[in-house]
Amino acid sequence: MPATLALIAHDGKKADLISFAHHHADLLRQFELVATGTTGGLLHKELDLSVTRKESGPLGGDVQIAAGVIEDTVDAVIFFIDPQGKHPHEPDIQTLMRACVVKNTPLATNESTARLLLTDEHIAPDPEGSVA
Ligand SMILES: O=C(CO)COP(=O)(O)O
């Protein structure tokens, strides 16, 4: 079964995430993908990726992904955070980060770490297409 990867980006980082996803589309297609609402919609529209969309972040999407982390249905999270932005749902964002810490779930909050995460042998699909 493919690993499940959550993809999330704040508004100020959505263009960066789409660009990252373009660069790594072949790898991303080997994961089961889940995303917050607007991020997931963009990934589908721009890259035709198959993504399970949760609610938008401000409407509880981060909390839904946090629940997936706690329940072991989400194996890793890429979350492009905008450090310049103000987010009305900041407590939800903290909940998601805390869930990842509690569960020791890989959480990449910038592009360079996301690249490492995607190619990590414990998370990433192996070259034959099955998942470690
Ligand atoms: O707000 C977000 C993360 O905190 C992202 O939500 P959207 O993908 O719905 O914009």
TrEMBL record:
What is the recorded name of this protein? Methylglyoxal synthase
Q: Which residues of the sequence carry a binding annotation for substrate?
A: H10, K14, T36, G37, T38, T39, S56, G57, H89
The top EC class is lyase
The MGS-like domain is annotated at 1-132
| Cross-referenced SMART domains | MGS
| Source organism of the structure | Longimonas halophila
Against InterPro entries, the record matches this protein to: Methylgl_synth, Methylglyoxal_synth_AS, MGS-like_dom, MGS-like_dom_sf
Stored Pfam families: MGS
Q: Does the keyword Lyase apply?
A: yes
Any idea which residues are catalytic in this one?
Answer: D62 (proton donor/acceptor)
